[in-house]
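Example record

The entry below shows one chain as it appears in the dataset: sequence first, then structure tokens.
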Amino acid sequence: MRTNDAQMLVLCTLADGPLHGYAINAAIEKLSGERLGPGSLYGALTRLEDKELIESLAGEGRQRPVRLTAKGREVLERELRSMAEVTDRMFEAAVPDRIGYLDRLAGTDVGRSYKQLVLDELDIRPGHTALDMGCGPGTDLAALAEAVTPSGTVIGIDADPEMVDRARGRTADLPAVDVRLGDAHDLPLADASVDRARTDRTLQHVTDPAQVLAETRRVLRPGGRLVMAEPDWDSLAIDHPDPEVSRAYTRHITDRIVRNAVIGRQLPRLATEAGFAVPTVVPVTSVFRDVRSADRILGFQRNAERAAAAGYLSEEAARRFLDHLAEEPFFAAVTLYVVVAEVGEGASAQALS
């Protein structure tokens, strides 16, 4: 049986004690988000009684309560263990290696698509100096190096020594690439020394996005361009029979997991306040129909468990949430914004000071 089977739903509702028909259906609605039709409910009760999984108690008509038999409880416990095992096999429980996670995202269809969009919007020319802020393990440095050609320079900056080491190793054969340990809030670069700059899912994590934008504005030359790809985690929508459960899951992500969870929608305003012109904003919505692929990016089990520990979901609701996601059909979506910010041709790094 599966959790959406009428018989399984009936058994689940009887786990805490006897109920009559109307109360069973009310409990099923609370559990699954929908009531069973009268035919489905009483057909399920009849079949379960024939299998000796439930038994009737004293009562009149349809108000007659039923309860689990010992056999029924054994079947229920076995099915719940089986479902839990399936769920645990389907979802990643451990937090993935950071470098592996970034490489995994870059290898998805949507990752390749939005990264190409960022590269196109950067409009890099041969001989340019291009800055990748939060370059991570160097995922995109080779593409930038190809765009600037050997006559240009690519500077990758990251605050994590492990990321810097990996990026340097990956770009050792690219003489145009210079990877540096540094803080995006205080860039180790001279004023007006960069033609193009990018961030890719970096500003969602920094302490002060406005300061990073101000620093980027400082190091860009007149006519320079910054292209940012940042998510809006408040847009995370996961189909579930009870919308409040999926909303609670998303609220936990935005409240507790990601520092600047709605940075995507804030970028046009923040960039304008930093002195940029913002000619282009492109929404890129990732749609997931396969739960395993979505889980590799969204981490359903570990984040549902965190949401339960933080009080956003009960443990029972978190388990029901995962059980539902493990079944087909599955749907989830989240929107990332690609924002283009430009420095005017006549601007100077000191213009806003």
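Notes for this example: DSSP finds 14 helices and nine strands in the chain. The CA atoms of residues 195 and 224 lie 5 Å apart.
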